[in-house]
Design brief:
This protein is α/β, with parallel strands linked by helices. It has two domains: about 5-125, NAD(P)-binding Rossmann-like Domain (Rossmann fold, 3-Layer(aba) Sandwich), CATH 3.40.50.720; about 130-305 and about 345-355, Dihydrodipicolinate Reductase, domain 2. Helices cover about 35% and strands about 25% of the residues. It has helices spanning about 15-25, 40-45, 85-90, 105-110, 115-120, 130-145, 165-175, 220-225, 240-250, 260-275, 305-325, 340-345, and strands at about 5-10, 30-35, 50-55, 70-75, 95-100, 125, 150-160, 180-185, 185-190, 200, 205-215, 230-235, 280-290, 295-305, 330, 350-355. The protein has a seven-stranded parallel β-sheet, with helices on both faces. Strand 1 (about 5-10), helix 1 (about 15-25) and strand 2 (about 30-35) form a beta-alpha-beta unit. The chain starts with a strand and ends in a 9-residue tail after the last strand. InterPro entries: NAD(P)-bd_dom_sf, Sacchrp_dh_NADP-bd. This is Saccharopine dehydrogenase.
C-alpha cells in the first residue's frame, strides 16, 4: 500500500475535479489539488470540506528535487504537457504516475521511459479515460472472447451536449485535418481524419450511424499491447446532422479554416453557449479473426458524461496503485486490469455494458 499523498495536477479542471472529489472522499487529507491557479485549488478544497489540500504548482518550472514532491507517492496528470520532463522527475523519485493524455506521440515518449521506471520502482499507467481507456479494455474483452483475434474496430459516439473543456474542442478541430498511420493487416497504412466513412449500429436509441476515421491513440496502442494485426478507430457525434456537416466541411476543403486560432475561439464560444446535443456517449468494439470473415463478437459501454467517466477511471487507477502493488514500468490500462471487473468497480450506475455474438458456429475462448 502506498503511504504518500496523491497529487492531482490540474485537479480543479473538468476531469481533475472528478478525480480530486472521488479520491478526497475515499482518503480524506491524502489528496493534493495542484495547479497554477491557487485560488481555484483553494475553492475546491473549501467546497469539499478540506478533504483535499490546495497547492500552487507549475510543472513547467519544477525540478526533480522540488520539496512539494517529497510526500507524494502518486501523481495523476490531468493537463496536457509539451515534454516529459515532469514525468521523468516523478519516475526518478520512485513516484507512481497516471496520465489521462490521449496524444499518441506524447504517449510514445512516455513509453520510452519504461527502463527508467523499472530501475526506480515506479509504475506508470497510460490510456486512462474513455478513449483511450475504456476502448482499450473493451478490445481486451473481445480478445478474451474471440479465439485467435487478429483485428478490432473501435467506434465512438460523443455527445455534443457534453460540457467539454477548451482543450477537448481544440483537439477535435485539429483532428479534422489530421493525417496519420494505422496498422492494417499487419501493414502500416496512411489515412486521414473524417474520411472513409463506415456505417455501424450502436446499441440503444442511436442505432445506425456513419462514422469516420479519427486519430484516437487507442488504435496506435492496441496492436502492440494485444499483439493483433489491425485496429482502426472511427467516430461520430450524437447529432447525425452535425456529423454529416463536419464530414462535408472536410470534403469541401473548408476544414482547413479550423486550424486558425481565431476560428477555433469563435466556435468554442458558440459550442459552449449553445449545446446542440446530449451528454451521452457510446464506445463499441467489433472483433474477429479476419476481415473477409467479418466480425464475430462486439461489446460496448454507454453512459453519460465523457469527462466524468474519464475522471472516474483515473481515480480508480489511482486507488488501485494506492492500495495495491504493481510491477514497475510503463503500462497501458489494458495491461494491468481485467476489463469487466474494472468497469464494474467504477461505481457509475449509468454505465451500461452490452455484448453480442455477430456470427454463429464459432468457438468462444474458454
Amino acid at each position: 500500500m502506498s503511504k504518500g499523498k496523491i497529487l492531482v495536477v490540474g485537479g480543479y479542471g473538468a476531469v481533475g475535479r472528478v478525480v480530486s472529489t472521488t479520491l478526497g472522499n475515499l482518503i480524506p487529507g491524502e489528496v493534493i489539488v495542484a495547479g497554477r491557479n491557487f485560488q481555484k485549488a483553494k475553492e475546491l478544497s473549501s467546497k469539499l470540506n478540506h478533504k483535499v489540500l490546495p497547492l500552487e504548482l507549475d510543472i513547467t518550472s519544477i525540478s526533480k528535487d522540488e520539496e512539494c514532491l517529497a510526500t507524494v507517492s502518486i501523481v495523476v496528470m490531468c493537463i496536457d504537457q509539451k515534454n516529459t520532463h515532469f514525468v521523468t522527475h516523478c519516475i526518478q523519485r520512485g513516484i507512481h504516475y497516471i496520465d489521462i493524455a490521449a496524444n499518441s506521440a506524447f504517449l510514445s515518449k512516455i513509453e520510452s521511459l519504461d527502463d527508467e521506471a523499472k530501475s526506480h520502482n515506479s509504475t506508470v499507467v497510460l490510456s486512462v479515460g474513455l478513449a483511450p481507456g475504456i476502448t482499450n479494455l473493451l478490445a481486451k474483452q473481445c480478445q478474451s472472447m474471440v479465439q485467435d483475434m487478429r483485428y478490432a474496430d473501435i467506434y465512438i459516439m460523443l455527445g455534443l451536449g457534453e460540457k467539454h473543456g477548451e482543450a477537448a474542442f481544440r483537439w477535435a478541430f485539429e483532428d479534422l485535418n489530421d493525417q496519420f498511420s494505422i496498422k492494417e493487416e499487419g501493414e502500416i497504412k496512411q489515412v486521414r481524419s473524417f474520411e472513409d466513412g463506415k456505417e455501424t449500429i450502436f446499441p440503444g436509441r442511436f442505432e445506425k450511424r456513419i462514422t469516420y476515421r479519427s486519430n484516437f491513440s487507442d488504435q496506435h496502442i492496441i496492436p502492440k499491447t494485444l499483439n493483433i494485426d489491425s485496429t482502426s478507430t472511427r467516430m461520430c457525434f450524437d447529432s447525425a446532422v452535425m456529423t454529416c456537416l463536419y464530414a462535408l466541411l472536410k470534403k469541401c476543403g473548408l476544414g482547413r479554416l479550423f486550424k486558425l486560432r481565431i476560428v477555433q475561439n469563435i466556435l468554442i464560444n458558440l459550442l459552449q453557449l449553445f449545446r446542440m446535443g446530449s451528454d451521452q456517449f457510446v464506445v463499441k468494439v467489433e472483433a474477429g479473426k479476419n476481415r473477409e470473415q467479418g466480425a464475430l463478437y462486439e461489446c460496448s459501454i454507454s453512459g453519460n458524461g465523457e469527462g466524468n467517466v474519464t475522471g472516474l477511471v483515473a481515480a480508480k487507477v489511482a486507488e488501485h496503485l494506492y492500495m495495491s502493488s504493481f510491477a514497475s514500468g510503463v503500462f497501458h490500462i489494458e495491461q494491468l486490469f481485467t476489463p469487466l471487473e474494472f468497469t464494474e468497480s467504477l461505481g457509475c450506475n449509468d454505465l451500461v455494458f452490452e455484448e453480442r455474438l455477430l456470427k454463429q458456429n464459432w468457438a468462444i475462448v474458454g
